[in-house]
Amino acid sequence: MKKSVQLIAYAPHFLSTVVVVSILTQVLSTHGIVNTAISALGGDRIAFLGEPGMFKSIFVWSSIWQTVGYSSIIYLAALAGVNPELQEVAYIDGANIWQRIRNVDIPAIMPTAIILLIVSSAGVLNVGFERVYLMQNPLNMSASDVIATYTFRMGLLDMNFSLATAVGLFQGIVSFAFMILVNHIAKKVTETSLW
């Protein structure tokens, strides 16, 4: 069971985005596993990727599925660096598992969590062009258009290079400013920062 859970959690991070979206498309198609189960239970088949209202949820959950493996590897590595003597001392002092997690493990991985927060804050406007573009279709375009796909359409399809450049520059400046702000707040609150 442990190996199966690890494979399901870690594998999507090491797979290409095209492969992950292909798996997702097959699972959520009108004749896929999900719709087969819905129809077996007496429900109507749903075109998940054709519904604009469902696009955001599908995108967020597929992003979590693809990135949770990498994040868990980072946090497991940080937990491996915790001095085992601290756990033993807390156990001898009578701390239960939840108290040990709260008072030993979380403070030990907090610097790693802060650094990951700062780094990921720079990509807050960049939601992943590849996955959005591959999942996008005319039916869900109203809900699936993001800055990267808009820039792609304006720059390469409509040949409006100046607008595409301005949008890309704006995105870069806002992302950089947001990362500096989060780094500054983290430095004041936790004394952990990138610089």
Query: Which structural category fits the helices and strands?
Result: mainly alpha
Question: Which CATH class applies here?
Answer: Mainly Alpha
Distance between the termini: 42 Å
Number of strands: 0
Mean pLDDT: 87
| Strand percent estimate | under 5%
Q: CATH superfamily, please?
A: MetI-like
Helix content: over 70%
For this structure, the quaternary state is single chain
Write the layout of secondary structure elements.
Blueprint: H1 2-14, H2 17-28, H3 33-40, H4 52-80, H5 84-92, H6 97-121, H7 129-135, H8 141-144, H9 147-157, H10 161-190
Tell me about this structure.
The chain is mainly α. It has one domain: MetI-like (MetI-like fold), CATH 1.10.3720. 76% of the residues lie in helices and 0% in strands. The chain is built from 10 helices and no strands. The chain has helices at residues 2-14, 17-28, 33-40, 52-80, 84-92, 97-121, 129-135, 141-144, 147-157, 161-190. The radius of gyration is 22 Å and the shape is flat. The two termini are 42 Å apart. The model has no long low-confidence stretch (mean pLDDT 87).
